[in-house]
Backbone:
């Protein structure tokens, strides 16, 4: 992290986290207002775990709460994610957290119907934690924000999620009345780096369902593929544009050539706000008809794609197509 609040970035490696670690790390992320950019590397984060699928689900759940939930308290609008595959099950896991009125029900078995926060009215010591001096309890300052996990009427204490320290009981007299927090800002800039996940057959089928949940306000989207034999079907582009209706910049790697003409239809049907498009490594064989149709449409000045698209970069794996006059339009 840099010293300037406006430049704060978060980068997490792909190390395996125990559940207690996940609670502490991701709650701290979610509660840091200065965070504006988040980088999360989940590559192989669970491959050596005894129960990799369960670990994958929990990591995705906590990631969703910290980065995409409207109940997060940070200011993250730019997110970069590295992950092995993105299945329909993964997308459903994220959807469940992001769409929930109280994601803490799934994360911490909260008994509350709605996710709420409370503020400390005075300094509080967490007696079952160890502070920086290794002998003193952790001290929380007045004004600190916590999430409500259990607020039972017959109990003098409230169980709350303390950012960075897990769940603790705090006397109700030391807490403000719980309220629904202000909505977190939406993610405007999203980058997803995908690799294969050997335990999943639908490695990419969760991409569009995920974007339907988190992409409503996204203006810039980058989708990269590793390895090279993992590619995106061009016919999914309209679905991506529909999931991200405000998208202005789209960058995709390893896109099939066949079906690319659907991009022209998306513009003509007024379902596309793109002004910049970068397609890197378009997978073309001998048949480049679909790609030709895109450039034919660009030659006609009154087509919507020609009027709206201001920047276009296309790189193919077919040298014959690149040597033709059609490619000179890009220079």
Residues:
């Amino acid at each position: 992290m840099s010293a300037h609040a406006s430049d704060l970035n978060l980068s997490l490696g792909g190390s395996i986290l125990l559940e207690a670690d996940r609670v502490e790390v991701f709650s701290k992320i979610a509660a840091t207002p200065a965070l504006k950019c988040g980088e999360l590397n989940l590559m192989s984060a669970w491959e050596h775990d005894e129960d990799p699928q369960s670990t994958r689900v929990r990591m995705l759940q906590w990631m969703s709460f910290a980065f995409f939930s409207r109940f997060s308290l940070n200011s993250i609008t730019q997110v970069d994610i590295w992950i092995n595959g993105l299945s329909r099950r993964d997308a459903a896991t994220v959807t469940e957290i992001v769409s929930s009125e109280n994601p803490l029900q799934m994360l911490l078995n909260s008994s509350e119907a709605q996710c709420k926060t409370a503020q400390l009215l005075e300094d509080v010591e967490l007696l079952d934690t160890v502070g920086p001096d290794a002998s003193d309890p952790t001290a929380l300052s007045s004004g600190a924000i916590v999430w409500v996990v259990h607020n039972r009427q017959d109990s003098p204490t409230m169980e709350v999620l303390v950012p960075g320290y897990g769940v603790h009981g705090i006397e109700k007299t030391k807490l403000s009345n719980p309220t629904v927090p202000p909505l977190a800002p939406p993610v405007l800039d999203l980058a997803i780096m995908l690799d294969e996940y050997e335990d999943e057959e639908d490695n990419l089928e969760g991409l569009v369902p995920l974007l339907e949940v988190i992409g409503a306000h996204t203006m810039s989207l980058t989708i990269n593929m590793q390895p090279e034999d993992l590619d995106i079907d061009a016919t999914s582009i309209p679905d991506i544009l529909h999931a991200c209706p405000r998208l202005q910049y789209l960058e995709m790697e390893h896109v099939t050539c066949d079906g690319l003409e659907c991009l022209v239809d998306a513009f003509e049907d007024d379902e596309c706000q793109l002004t910049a498009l970068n397609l890197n490594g378009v997978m073309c064989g001998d048949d480049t008809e679909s790609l030709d149709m895109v450039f034919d449409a660009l030659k006609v000045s009154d087509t919507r794609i020609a009027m709206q698209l201001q920047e276009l970069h296309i790189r193919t794996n077919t040298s014959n197509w690149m040597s033709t006059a059609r490619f000179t339009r890009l220079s």
Remarks:
- The first strand starts at residue 9 and ends at 12.
- Residues 1-7, 323-331 have pLDDT under 50 and may be disordered.
- The two ends are 39 Å apart (CA to CA).
